[in-house]
Design goal:
Rna Polymerase Sigma Factor, Chain: A, 9 helices, about 65% helix
Amino acid sequence: MVQNGLNLFGQATPLTSMKVKAGHAKASDDRQERELLGRIAGHERAAFDELFKIYHPRLFRFVFRMTGSYRAADELANDVLLVVWQNAHTYRGDARVSTWIFGIAYRKSLRQLRKPKYATTTLSDDLAADENTSARIEREDWVRRGIDRLSPKLRLTVMLVYYLGLTCEETAVATGAPVNTIKTRMFHARQKLRVFLEDGHG
């Protein structure tokens, strides 16, 4: 995602292939999701099933980028949606539904990142056969290594802002941190990632 003409690493070209389409829902989508949450608060299973279809893939990708583990991604995505089912009545409407849900995902992921890592997956050999795909995968893998070196809070903040597309204000709501803290985290994350990429350490 590009902000102020530059991506996360100060480059003019964004890493669009790594972006997760999850933030900045259209107003009509948010209205629909608010309605679903209201019905879920009344324990309507059909409404939950509909919201599950919308959010499970997004949550899975979000957690997978954090952990590199299919097991962790599946478990945490399900855990987050279970919290939504149990606590839909606590949603007050002062933020987008997506911000509220990913706030839950942030807190659960933060706890997960402080535990021993799950076994990670490896890239498929058949993907590496294509030269362009191989170069892209190598770049994404290198970026992920840099992100993995960040502290849990910096790593999750980067994911919320750049890969989910939340604004700093929305990220502040999701994480419970002041906006200036989010901006400071992003500054330090960018600096650390630039150093990592420039030094070329694996």
